[in-house]
Automatic annotation (TrEMBL):
Species this protein is from: Microbacterium lushaniae
UniProt xrefs under InterPro entries: Homeodomain-like_sf (IPR009057), HTH_TetR (IPR001647)
Stretches assigned to the HTH tetR-type domain: 14-74
Family matches, as SUPFAM superfamilies: Homeodomain-like (SSF46689)
Keyword DNA-binding: yes
Record feature DNA-binding region, as residue ranges: 37-56
Gene Ontology molecular function terms on file: DNA binding
Pfam families: TetR_N
Keyword annotations from UniProtKB, A to Z: DNA-binding, Transcription, Transcription regulation
Protein name (database record): TetR family transcriptional regulator
Length: 194
């Protein structure tokens, strides 16, 4: 800011992240991710381009909210597990718990999963976006399995994230009418730690 530019006053604009995400997903679903501009998202949401860029930084980051919530659910399930519980059971339960069964989330989750699955750029972004989820799971695996090193725990956590993501995509391809958590549960229960 230059010396002649007056300081901005008042509260920063409030941005409804969920509403922006719904509108962006709708645009990406109809015209593709690469063809969608910030101007189009701004026009659809009524939020200025400047505010959108300041709030999200990138178009893929608009999709981060469900991943943040999934990480919170995963963390809560891991912390709630008894210390002496079987590590595989703890991981399976936590990974499944990270998938929301809330009807509103499920309704929004289907187009979210479909858009991410259809766009290579969003698939690449997904690995970065899920880093906190993976780190949380890896730390729990490492803490519960004494003979596993950090790299192995991290690799296992990455594997569970990949399996959960693939199961969510299978859920979306099947129409998304049943439980996404059941799809994830059926997939992750095939893997054991130890």
């Amino acid at each position: 800011m230059s010396a002649t530019t007056p300081a901005r006053r008042g509260r920063p604009p409030v941005v409804d992240r969920d509403a922006v995400a719904r509108e962006a997903i709708d645009l990406w679903s109809t015209q593709g991710f690469a063809a969608t501009t910030w101007d189009q998202i701004s026009e659809r949401t009524g939020v200025s381009v400047r505010t959108l860029i300041r709030r999200f930084g990138s178009q893929p980051a608009i999709l981060a909210r469900p991943i943040e919530a999934a990480t919170d659910r995963l963390r809560a399930a891991l912390r709630a597990a008894p210390a002496d519980a079987d590590p595989s059971d703890v991981v399976h339960t936590a990974v499944v718990a990270s998938v929301s069964e809330d009807d509103a989330v499920r309704a929004g989750g289907l187009p979210w999963v479909r858009v991410v699955a259809a766009e290579p750029q969003l698939q690449a972004w997904l690995r970065t976006a899920y880093a906190p989820w993976i780190t949380e799971l890896a730390a729990s695996i490492r803490a519960r399995v004494p003979d596993i090193d950090d790299d192995t725990a991290y690799a296992l956590a990455c594997g569970f994230e990949a399996v959960a993501n693939a199961a969510m995509q299978a859920w979306a391809r099947a129409g998304g009418t049943d439980s996404p958590a059941a799809h994830v549960g059926a997939a992750v229960h095939r893997f054991r730690i130890g």
